[in-house]
Amino acid sequence: MGGTRLARVVAAHGRHCLVEDESGQRTLCHPRGKKSAVVVGDIVAWQPSGDEGSIERIETRRNLFYRQDEMRTKAFAANLDQVLILLAAEPVFSEAQLTRALLAAEAEGISACIVLNKQDLGGPFDQAWARLEPYRRMGTPVLPLGLHDGHGLDALRQRLTGRHTLVLGPSGVGKSTLVNRLVPEAGAQTGEISRALNTGRHTTTATTWYWLEPARESALIDSPGFQEFGLHHLEAERLAQLMPDLRAALGDCRFYNCTHRHEPGCGVRAHVGADPSVDPLAIDQNRYRLYDELFDELSNKRTY
Ligand SMILES: Nc1nc2c(ncn2[C@@H]2O[C@H](COP(=O)(O)OP(=O)(O)OP(=O)(O)O)[C@@H](O)[C@H]2O)c(=O)[nH]1
Ligand SMILES: [Zn+2]
């Protein structure tokens, strides 16, 4: 159709968004009619009208990273290559929250990595690093980082190169420090987006797309909302498949529809609490407890 162009959504506020074309040109767009909301990372077909534009269509998404609680769904971003979960030696992180974010990524087929910041803190860092051992063992990359002294920054840059990465993390782990460290003109970009979308507030409250280099190949997508990570969109029966450590032990249960909670002859529970130096399929107690609790939560969810 004449006049329609493809572009990427680099910021969204309400139903309005900022799209960026291949040359890097950004345009404020509004949806035409009653269209479903766009998400950062969406590829859209849009049509210019004056200085602004209207969204005609959202291209099919490769994936959509989102959370869902009883009342609402929150989409973080679409078409991702990777989700990076930033944690730190302090504040002490919640394993439940970490596991939920990993599950949401796995359910959409998005690879995830964990980055542990504040390496300079010594003891607390070592304790946090030890808590992440089951995650390393199940194959999730875990990178040490010290944003204050630059430790591990090169390895992190390597992991981000050529990918579009959503960054998530609880408050206080150093997410703004990370963005400012990797995106030299982050402040300017944020200001430009705030002005364009007329939010009148700092866009740390909205999801924002940052390019890491002038060639615009690697991107960091900064998104708030790591708290209250609802997984109502997942079936309880799918959980074990989505947890790599449990998944590795599947196939040896007596019952084909085993929930791995109370059935006799369960091949998963046989590995819970085992010594990893003896049992390569050992499942960490905490991980199993999280599975058990989530199974309860997801099988008792109410639908409205
Ligand atoms: N010791 C230490 N402190 C760090 C490091 N990186 C960041 N911090 C500190 O951690 C605190 C939180 O950093 P921010 O970048 O504001 O963290 P944030 O994740 O954006 O936090 P919110 O703004 O609450 O979302 C600040 O006081 C930083 O100086 C580090 O490598 N070591
Ligand atoms: Zn079982």
Automatic annotation (TrEMBL):
Amino acids binding GTP: 117-120, 169-177
Superkingdom in the source lineage: Bacteria
Cofactor mode of binding and number, as noted: Binds 1 zinc ion per subunit.
Binding site for Zn(2+): 253, 258, 260, 266
Molecular-function GO term, any one: metal ion binding
Domain EngC GTPase residues, every copy: 78-227
Keyword Hydrolase attributed: yes
Family: Belongs to the TRAFAC class YlqF/YawG GTPase family. RsgA subfamily.
Keywords assigned: Cytoplasm, GTP-binding, Hydrolase, Metal-binding, Nucleotide-binding, Ribosome biogenesis, RNA-binding, rRNA-binding, Zinc
HAMAP family linked: GTPase_RsgA
Cofactor(s) needed by this chain: Zn(2+)
Functional note: One of several proteins that assist in the late maturation steps of the functional core of the 30S ribosomal subunit. Helps release RbfA from mature subunits. May play a role in the assembly of ribosomal proteins into the subunit. Circularly permuted GTPase that catalyzes slow GTP hydrolysis, GTPase activity is stimulated by the 30S ribosomal subunit.
Subcellular location: Cytoplasm
Chain's gene name: rsgA
Subunit relationships: Monomer. Associates with 30S ribosomal subunit, binds 16S rRNA.
Species annotation: Hydrogenophaga borbori
Gene Ontology cellular-component terms listed: cytoplasm
Top EC class of this enzyme: hydrolase
Domain called CP-type G: residue spans: 68-229
Name listed for the protein in its UniProt record: Small ribosomal subunit biogenesis GTPase RsgA
